[in-house]
């Protein structure tokens, strides 16, 4: 009776490649039309190894599409005022169209006033109150955080119609869960947001046509949690050491158990990750294009 | 087995009275300390009878707590530019601490650019992108739309602990459903937002510890939809004509059916309505107090 479902992998890498190629064309066109090269400034404070990998990867991709990249690597000892001053300088710099502060910041720094001091028109991470509010109000002309934007694009590609589907988002962060809820609401889904205080996450998951997991808890979601045929988007990236002492990336979903239950699923790695970076490039070219229009 | 539940009425009128008395004291204190009288400007365009009732009621309450009220009643023929110019003047007027544009506007006017042109520091309805974003990001120092703020206050009074409860909000508007979801998320609830495209609203309602209904559909929610002992907040205000040709207000919940099922419920009228106006006064005194601090 319970024939296992033929689970289809969602190829984030291929999707990101296509997006990136399109951004590359748009960059070339903008340069041809206006002489302007889009520029992305990335600020990294301290020496967190994972953040360094992310930042290096972002820089590499930025160059690949023909954009300028401005890397600001600040020492662990940077003060709040110094960081604030740097954001102010980048706000005023006409060569910088997007500003990204790599999170988390060292503990002695308060991220929020820093993030909120970024000009909304350069806030390619979509984290200022103005851009968050635009999204909440359903105005799609602000900047949308890259990870939920990427998840939405993948869902739009994979599902012919989102309207009316039941979506569960596990994780309620400002960077992912909350903007994801707004995007899916705007798309007509019935949206539930579960989090650390939720009492019946498993039961809620079993009712979800779309299951999006962004918790940072490795393999939290078991196969038995997944509704037959559901579309599963795994946003988690967790590093584990295998028995032969290699580093392996695993998601927030027990992938092997999900296969045969989910209709479609994003793998880790190769799912949401590459699309997130493609969305950052997408937001940056948008910022440069808007800058030209103003 | 199914002993009917002793349903308790949530007395919004009494709650609003207490809130209003507190605002009155704060207004007197502010005048004593600074000589400043908080002022609320209300803009009404056209002759919608329901809007006229609301606006009159707001003005009356504003005077009751010792605030100034500036009523701007514009003709149906007002242009977008004229309305925009008025908002600009009120933005600059030091006697005006709060600005409210009564919705809906006549059809030839586009409400959104008007709302977005209100200074965030005078946006006592919490509808600008900046204030909506503040709420989304969990920063509680912006202005929160009055109706969901009132619902939250009622819930906080009625339920000892919101954290971990399952809440269903039916209706996903910018004025009510969306900010309500943010408030309940911030309070630790597991939140589901249902709307016109939702396929299984009844089933979702049956799982909800907290059920908030803001649809404008009279008596949409039947008694059978309500989980035993749930707390029900009815935001609907629908006018019906009774058999003896009197106007009667009814809610979005079939009240008579809900009694015996819900643990607590707000009546219509006398539930959410008065608290909404009290929250408007609360936001306005906050605006005046912040203005003094700046």
Automatic annotation (TrEMBL), chains A, B:
Q: Which Pfam families match?
A: THF_DHG_CYH, THF_DHG_CYH_C
Which GO molecular function annotation, any one, does this entry have?
A: methenyltetrahydrofolate cyclohydrolase activity
Would the keyword NADP turn up in this protein's UniProt record? yes
Q: Which reaction does it catalyse?
A: (6R)-5,10-methylene-5,6,7,8-tetrahydrofolate + NADP(+) = (6R)-5,10-methenyltetrahydrofolate + NADPH; (6R)-5,10-methenyltetrahydrofolate + H2O = (6R)-10-formyltetrahydrofolate + H(+)
**E.C. numbers:** 1.5.1.5, 3.5.4.9
Query: Out of the domains of life, which is the source?
Result: Bacteria
| Occurrences of domain Tetrahydrofolate dehydrogenase/cyclohydrolase catalytic (ranges) | 10-125
Q: Please provide the record's keywords in A-Z order.
A: Amino-acid biosynthesis, Histidine biosynthesis, Hydrolase, Methionine biosynthesis, Multifunctional enzyme, NADP, One-carbon metabolism, Oxidoreductase, Purine biosynthesis
Pathway annotation from the record: One-carbon metabolism; tetrahydrofolate interconversion
> What role does this protein play?
Catalyzes the oxidation of 5,10-methylenetetrahydrofolate to 5,10-methenyltetrahydrofolate and then the hydrolysis of 5,10-methenyltetrahydrofolate to 10-formyltetrahydrofolate.
Which family is annotated? Belongs to the tetrahydrofolate dehydrogenase/cyclohydrolase family.
Quaternary structure annotation from Swiss-Prot or TrEMBL: Homodimer.
* The name this protein goes by in its record: Bifunctional protein FolD
Species of the source: Commensalibacter oyaizuii
The gene coding this protein: folD
